[in-house]
Amino acid sequence: MFKGKPTRVIITGEAKEEFDALNKKVGEEISKGITRSEHQTLLSSIKQKIELLKSNPEYGTHIQKDKIPKEYLQEYDVNNLWKLNLSGAWRMIYTIRGSEIEIISLILDIMTHRDYEKKFRYGKRH
Fold it and tell me: Shortest CA distance to 74 belongs to which of 18, 23, 13?
């Protein structure tokens, strides 16, 4: 519950593909007896952040509206965007959707820091 409403976290689009591939890789590692890896640490980090979002959808860092990449506006019709730092300098990007019934944290991207900087055009001089 957040502000008196139930919350859900949904992984969608590229984030879902990344999450599913990571889950598969971790499963393969575990079946081979590998109990510690960067993949497992990242998956654990993602799952931990999802639990935090269930209790507080505003847990992440709010991204200014003028910094929201056009693709998120076009593909997901977002009017807010948030970032969470994950292990290994990975980033999770999400938007918050609300109604009178519930609040949904919609995870749009799980990416490396380098991909994050590229997508959000950080470090580039205009």
Answer: 13
Does residue 89 lie within any of the structural domains?
yes
DSSP β-bridge partners for residue 59 = none
User: pLDDT tens, 64-123?
Assistant: 999 999 999 999 999 999 999 999 999 999 999 988 899 999 999 999 999 999 999 876
**126 falls within a domain:** no
C-alpha torsion sign, points 20, 47, 9, 53: negative
pTM of the model: 0.91
- Tell me, what DSSP letter sits at residue 64? P
**Domain for residue 102, yes or no?**
yes
Task: Please report which residue ranges of the chain form alpha helices under DSSP H.
Answer: 13-31, 38-55, 70-76, 113-119
Supply 105's token pair.
Answer: 């944290």
Q: Bridge-partner residues for 90, per DSSP?
A: 112
Report the CATH number that the domain containing residue 34 is assigned in CATH. 3.30.2310.20
Residue 38 DSSP code = H
Cα distance between residue 79 and residue 92, in whole Å: 17
